[in-house]
Amino acid sequence: MTLLTSIVVMLLLCLSAAHAQQERSDFQLNFRPFVGSVPLQLDTIYTLDKNQTIEFSTLKWYISGVELLRNDTVFFAEPNSYHLLDVSDEHLLHIPLSHLPSGQFTHVRFYLGIDSATTTSGAFGGDLDPTRGMLWTWQSGYIHTKIEGKSSRSTARNKEFEFHLGGYRSPFNSLQTITLPLPSSREVSIKMDVLKWINSIDLASVHHIMSPGEQAVLLSQQFATIFRVEAR
Amino acid sequence: MKRILLLGIVAFLALVAFRSDENFSVPTGWPNPHYDFSKNPPSRAKIELGRALFYDPILSRNSTISCASCHSQYTAFTHVDHALSHGIDDRIGTRNSPALMNLAWSKDFMWDGAVNHLDMQALAPISNPQEMDETMTHVVHKLSQTSLYPPLFRAAYGDSTITGERLLKAMSQFMLTLISARSKYDSVMQREAEFTLQEQNGYRLFQTKCSSCHTEPLFTNYQFENNGLPLDTTLMDYGRMSVTKQASDSLKFKVPTLRNIEFSYPYMHDGRFKRLRDVLMHYSTIRQNGTESNKLQPMNFTSNEMVDLTAFLLTLTDRKFLFDTAYSYPKYIFATQAKD
Predict the structure, then answer these.
(1) Looking at the structure, do residues B107 and B64 belong to the same domain, yes or no?
(2) Contact A123 B128 (CB under 8 A)
(3) How far is the C-alpha of B141 from the C-alpha of B58, rounded, in Å?
(4) Is residue B24 part of a domain?
(5) Which of A47, B97, B109, B280 is the most core-located residue (most Cβ within 10 A)?
(6) Closest by alpha carbon to A21, among A96, A100, A78, A82?
(7) Residue B139 has pLDDT above 90, yes or no
(8) Residue A123 and residue B116: Cβ atoms within 8 Å?
(9) The dihedral of CA B255, B258, B260, B261: what is its sign?
């Protein structure tokens, strides 16, 4: 009897494991930064119109609170969803989502940056760890987007530009919500034309933003518009 | 219904347990702390790790400045006798280092509240070029190269991995233990002692003139207020306004606790007053400067009142806190290192 029971239990366990396996379909978001139509690589000089040049030395940004939507309802919300994307390493440009329930979803929604509640809740590890260099120190808060480089358009010393965009306090909360439609594939590329963003800035007068404020909010809003799902 | 009741009881018990365990307890009559202990549960090993870090100059670029350099226990964890604190290479900062105590009840840190959580506080002095001039990434690297710290992190966290989060949370744990609640004032409130007549007069005066900002039992309302100090034009420090960018916050600074005020001189955010008497003179003759607290009026203290008030303020001295060996330099930890 005991033997029989344990065999039945074992069988049930195997079945449920197989079932779980079936349900666990993975999905991946790949972020692909571009300069116009050319893939962006760090420390590479790109020539623009009128012999102007631009190069990037740092490009990092936080994506958090990733949710998959079925039309307007949340289909899946990634737990503990904080990702630091970083162009310096190809491996740091992907967000894999696992343990998805089976079924279709139509949109992805995420924050560009780290929300206020997290920002005011103390120290965290992983991609939020203070050693990642994405925290301001003299004033608390995450740098949502860090973009540094040089351009002939900049009037700063050494033609540099540095944008550390962040801010979690009203009225200078620079967190952005981005919603994008998804194709039905299980792997989706999100293209970001960083040139389009930098073209919206007059680098002759605005080349350094290192603290929260109106400008940081504006530039964050503009950065949020460059995310596009790449058609396959 | 039963389940809800049970949940309620469990939640209540959790709250009660929260107020007191072997490592942290809320003094009688005090409000619940602001710090969320559930995100950083106290343990002896973490507190001792935090204590070692607090006293170790390894946190600074050239290993000359520790937290304790500007926050010395015998002066209620502020900088002995310095108006503006000096850090690495004798560089001078722009503010008086705040006294450290009862930090679990504080919502914001720094004179202007620029730091929003105790865990994040240590980042500021570590990175400030005038203070420790270091980076968290490099500190973590340096600590991992020592023979001292990996075992301390293992004892605290179960493995020897050193991260910024672990470091900051351990430092918070030590700082959270810095509770000053054993002054004569506290004994009087517990009916274990009595004020002298002079102290009693001072206490009455304090309650009518000072307590709306320096609210008992923590002796601060944790708000930002303009106490009528004129702007020091050599520092151009507008306080809270630099954080909120709101003109209404101009010249507002965090209301500091008055506990251990006898030892935490010099006073004010820039240490401009050396003596308690200077402070009382300021409040006595205050002038308008724009955004001052509406609670503030010239107090016109008589010299007798000043003496009474001072007598009361001295009852806030907590010698058990100032000399508690649990807060002092952890010789027993560093002694092993000296042999290396």
Answers:
(1) yes
(2) no
(3) 11
(4) no
(5) B97
(6) A100
(7) yes
(8) no
(9) positive
